[in-house]
Amino acid sequence: MSDRQNATGFAATELKDDPDSLSQKEFSFPVQPIDGPPATVNVMLGLTINQGNYESARIDVGIRWPCQPTQEAAEQAYRAAKDWCESRIKVEVRSMRGK
After folding, report:
1. I want to staple 45 with a disulfide (CB 3.0 to 4.6 A). Which of 5, 26, 85, 90 is the partner?
2. pLDDT given for residue 82 in this prediction
């Protein structure tokens, strides 16, 4: 029996020295159905952006991607999760820079 699983991700941004600036977003979307108990691939990326004048901002993104418990499926899930994180961090950088 195939079970529909969701990948779950997050994006967080924060200006250094300003804890009130913390912004967090959560994401969830379906992945391929999985037979039996899933394996899980987790990928996280982070970036610190120099904003000049001794100020910086931090962006962190991550995702939990369920997959079949095989080496091939784990490698495919890793590539998909890494691509998602790289794409999401670019979106967050553009958003932070107002572009």
Report:
1. 85
2. 97
Which amino acid appears at position 94 of this protein?
R
As a whole number, the mean pLDDT across the chain is 91
Residue 32 host element (H or E): none
pTM, to two decimals: 0.86
Q: 90 CB contacts (<8 Å, ≥6 apart)? A: none
Are the C-beta atoms of 9 and 77 separated by less than 8 Å? no
State the amino acid at position 7 in one-letter form: A
